[in-house]
Specification:
Layout lengths: L7 E2 L9 E2 L3 E3 L8 H4 L10 E2 L16 E4 L2 E4 L8 H13 L5 E5 L4 H11 L7 E5 L10 H4 L2 H12 L6 E4 L7 H10 L4 E4 L3 E4 L1 E2 L4 E2 L5 E5 L4 H14 L4 E4 L5 H10 L3 E4 L2 H4 L3 H15 L14
Parallel strand pairs: 3-16, 4-7, 7-8, 8-9, 9-10, 10-15, 15-16
Antiparallel strand pairs: 1-2, 5-6, 6-14, 11-14, 12-13
Helix pairs in contact: 3-5, 5-6, 6-7, 7-8, 8-10
The structure holds flavin mononucleotide.
């Protein structure tokens, strides 16, 4: 059999498009700015790299501890520590410009104006192939989930980004809502080219010795295998509600996990926490998907996207 075609178009409605050679990408905040991992794995083999979330100004993040292990996952309260968009454009984008793998920049605004400004600054930067709009961060006091929890605010942030860039725009949804499909429909209506879901679920842990919250910021976001069934169900629900491509994310550690998300309706997957225990997780997943397609005589990925719908 001819080698299967794993390529996927993530922004069919966008004039620039966003073609991925395969559906395996990195979840924001778990793969740095990409270059850190280039010494560990061949990052050019990935479908795309989604970099650490970026804000207008650099941020120091939340008090330590910021990462606590839980059963089947981790709680994090990083608080969007990042270098700021100017440094990203100056120091990171030139490296990405030399790569064949597309890099998508995850952005977080504290207001609609900030989302607009981030989009404007990133538009036309060589090395940046798309924007992921983070309206779902549970670890900041302003912005993030404030936008992701209401259909109106989510649409406003999407609209602000779309109005200021021709880059493909992916909106990243929060699971900390009553009806994720309602938010999905609102951002698609506002022009999102694609959606990614889910971000982390709010949670906490208490340290028995100190009798205090284990995280410096009290609460945090839960990720890892423990959240996979929730993420999968949400992807399935959203895939019934919208027509745009979906990037599935949440607890994906193996090729079987990734295939479940693809069957549920995801055109691509993002791998996050799994990379902490296996830095090669993305490539192992990619190889596993390919083996599955060969074994099952699937010629094109599109044949199995949404198979379970
Ligand atoms: C340490 C850490 C930092 C993260 N930082 C970001 C971020 O900057 N922006 C964002 O949209 N999501 C961020 N996330 C959420 C992940 O991108 C992903 O949505 C979530 O972890 C679920 O996927 P996983 O279970 O595969 O890790 C972060 C997650 C972790 C664990």
């Amino acid at each position: 059999m001819k080698s299967p075609d794993l390529s996927v178009q993530l922004a069919p409605q966008n004039s620039r498009g966003l073609r991925l050679a395969n559906p395996v990408t990195t979840a924001s905040g778990t793969f740095g700015y990409g270059a850190e991992y280039a010494e560990v794995i061949d990052v050019q083999r990935l479908g795309a790299i989604i970099c650490k979330g970026i804000t207008l100004k650099p941020r120091h993040g939340n008090p330590q501890p910021r990462l606590v292990e839980t059963v089947g996952g981790v709680l994090n309260s990083i608080g969007m520590e990042n270098i700021g968009v100017d440094s990203l454009i100056r120091e990171k984008a030139p490296t990405w410009a030399g790569w064949s793998v597309p890099v998508i920049v995850n952005v977080l605004g504290q207001s609609t104006e900030e989302y607009a400004e981030l989009a404007r600054l990133l538009d036309g930067v060589t090395g940046v192939s798309g924007i992921e709009v983070n309206i779902s961060c549970p670890n900041v006091s302003a912005g993030g989930m404030e936008f992701g929890a209401s259909p109106e605010a989510a649409a406003e942030a999407t609209d602000a980004v779309k109005a200021n860039t021709t880059l493909p725009v992916i909106v990243k949804l929060s699971p900390n809502v009553t009806d994720i499909a309602e938010i999905a429909c609102a951002v698609v209506e506002a022009g999102a080219d694609a959606l990614s879901l889910i971000n982390t679920l709010k949670g906490m842990s208490i340290d028995l010795a100190s009798r205090r919250p284990a995280l410096g910021n009290t609460g945090g976001g839960l990720s890892g295998p423990a959240i996979k069934p929730i993420a999968l169900h949400m992807v399935y629900q959203v895939a019934q509600a919208v027509e745009v491509p979906i990037m599935g994310c949440g607890g994906i550690s193996t090729a079987s996990d990734a295939l479940e998300f693809i069957f549920a309706g995801a055109s691509a997957v993002q791998v996050g926490t799994a990379t902490f225990t296996n830095p090669r997780a993305t490539l192992d997943i990619l190889e596993g998907i390919k083996r599955f397609m060969e074994k099952e005589s699937v010629h094109q990925l599109s044949e199995i996207i949404g198979a379970a719908k």
